[in-house]
Amino acid sequence: MNNDIFPCLWYDGDAKQAAEFYCKVFNGEITADTPVVMNIDVFGQRLMLLNGGPQFKKNPSISFMVICETEDEVQKYWDQLLEGGIALMDLGSYSWSKKYGWVQDKYGVTWQLFFGEKASDQTIVPTLMFIHGNNGKAKEAMELYTQIFPNSRIGNVLKYGDGGEGHPIPEPAENVQHAHFVLDNYSFFCMDNSYDHQFDFNEGISMVVMTDDQKQTDDYWNALTSDGGKESMCGWLKDKYGLSWQIVPKRLIQLMNASDREKAQKVVQAMMKMQKIIIQDLEDAYNS
């Protein structure tokens, strides 16, 4: 599994409470504790929680599938996540799993708790929902992403036409009901959905990609912003589907965490003015 790719969840001041809550629910640990960024390790996976402010709200266009080994495990997570939250699909037995439920927790993060087989050694799998103008583009997106990232592949793809669960809204047969894909050894699921949801991809949940050098940073940035993507600030971008990514050189984190706080602060100030992160400019700011 790759810990250079991981989700970032956006909070309005309550990232620390949420981090403590998830560590309690999933028996995880806090690995970084700052006023802006909390990192937690859950099942050997990294999740980043960011106190970004009130601008963005998390929504179910990206949910987190938690693959459980027993029905009791599903129940244990469900009971805790439902407290102060909302059930989006009731906990029960479905054609795809003997015990499954979809819940939005009190912090606005949605979890699909699933008793079944893992597709990889990853327990928590971000699940992308392609809706509205993106509906029908899940397969195209998987093909694009797996071309951009090394060590990538498309796994099992179940189309609506392949049978399976009936849907209240008939879906086009060629659309993806559920698919697994891997980007640089990190697993995702995705699906198409024609329901007119009141949400879509936004900055509330983004995917962070840690890069080794400027070339890798440039390559990912250029590939993900091309063909209708949009550059944003501080290493953030949106791809052509509106999915938010943060392309973050590892060197940025090293410089920001330098023991000389004054130099580290200069690095942060330089980064705040950038769209794509330019490592040399960060080094220059550090040494200025």
**Helix and strand element order:** EHEEEEHEEEEHEEEEHEEEHHH
For CATH, the homologous superfamily of the largest domain is named as 2,3-Dihydroxybiphenyl 1,2-Dioxygenase, domain 1
Give the helix proportion (percent range). Answer: 25-40%
**Secondary structure tally: strands:** 16
InterPro entries: Glyas_Bleomycin-R_OHBP_Dase (IPR029068), PhnB-like (IPR028973), VOC_core (IPR037523)
Organism: Chryseobacterium gallinarum
Domain VOC: 4-116
Protein name: VOC family protein
Account of the 3D structure:
- It comes from Chryseobacterium gallinarum.
- Residues 4-116 form the VOC domain.
- This protein has 288 residues and is α+β, with helices and mostly antiparallel strands.
- It has two domains: 5-192, 2,3-Dihydroxybiphenyl 1,2-Dioxygenase, domain 1 (Roll), CATH 3.10.180.10; 212-287, 2,3-Dihydroxybiphenyl 1,2-Dioxygenase, domain 1.
- The protein contains seven helices and 16 strands.
- The chain has helices spanning 15-26, 71-82, 138-148, 214-225, 250-256, 261-272, 279-287; strands at residues 5-11, 29-33, 37-42, 45-51, 62-68, 86-94, 97-104, 110-115, 124-130, 153-159, 176-183, 186-192, 205-211, 230-231, 236-238, 244-249.
- The strands form two sheets. It has an eight-stranded mixed beta sheet with strand order 2-3-4-1-13-16-15-14. An eight-stranded mixed beta sheet has the order 6-7-8-5-9-12-11-10, covered by helices on one side.
- β7 (97-104) and β8 (110-115) form a beta hairpin.
- It starts with a strand and ends with a helix.
